[in-house]
Amino acid sequence: MTSIDVRDLTKEYGTRRAVDHVTFGVRPGKVTGFLGPNGAGKSTTMRLVLGLDRPTSGTATVGGRPYAALAEPLRHVGALLDAQAAHGSRTGRDHLRALAASNRIPAARADAMLEETGLASVARRRVKTYSLGMRQRLGIAGALLGDPEVILLDEPSNGLDPEGIVWIRELLRRLAAEGRTVLVSSHLMNETASFADHLVVLGRGRLLADTPMRDFIDARVQPHVRVRTTDAGALKAALAGHGHDAVEHEDGHWTVTHARVDEIGALLSAAGVPILELASTEGTLEQAYFDLTAAETEFTAPHQEP
Ligand SMILES: Nc1ncnc2c1ncn2[C@@H]1O[C@H](COP(=O)(O)OP(=O)(O)OP(=O)(O)O)[C@@H](O)[C@H]1O
Q1: Measured between alpha carbons, how far is 256 from 248 in angstroms, rounded to an integer?
Q2: What domains can you pick out in the chain, each with its CATH number?
């Protein structure tokens, strides 16, 4: 089993510190979502793990060794950083075969990965004729070519169609279930919530969180109870009688925070309040993420006064 270990990693470009004393580990058998606003340092960290850039200080290792020390690295670590990186004048198949040859991977594996990523029908077309989504799929095929234990994908959902989004979600879950170490950056919170077990969050180059996804959400967003009724007065009175505040929303539903659905259901029912809808609402990753990064965002739109 192979982990990625980042220890006190710092990368400076001139006076700009892109990664600032970051320490975290990415463990096998899980999908770790890698989040953070634009410019937070995610891609730089991935490049440092892959030995594509030298750290100013600190270390990044895979299975305890720097990437550069791995023999036939594609057999250990697969990565998609930039879907535009493939040579446009080559066919998708030739691109994968060249990658395979340089890592002593059997050529048949290239065809298997074209099949796996849904590219078999366009395998003999030049990469320059591929759509963004097709290039993403080709990049993912390249990452999986060497059957690696460790997989790093930088925004793999970028450009994928709805069917592709479902496909990548299932692929990531399967890779983790096979015991692989999977690190995936994304700006899509709903997507990340659908595949990640664990989260590493950066902001302005610093580590903001390294935690199981459920804990990340629960620590920041209060679950609440959602209610709809035909008798708002009775609802408010019944809740107030038990020390609960209810907030009414534009579409007519109410939310009760710091409350459990079974308690609210029982007390409204006992008070004879007519209930049209009663549900427990969990916090979302998007809410929790905004809560954490609001103060950290480097490039936010200026706040507009109404
Ligand atoms: N080669 C480079 N030379 C100079 N500055 C760089 C270089 N690469 C990255 N940076 C800077 O480092 C910081 C981190 O960038 P990075 O691309 O790692 O962020 P990111 O979290 O991947 O952002 P995004 O979500 O926009 O992809 C940014 O301020 C960026 O401008």
Answers
A1: 9
A2: 4-211 (3.40.50.300), 224-281 (3.30.70.100)
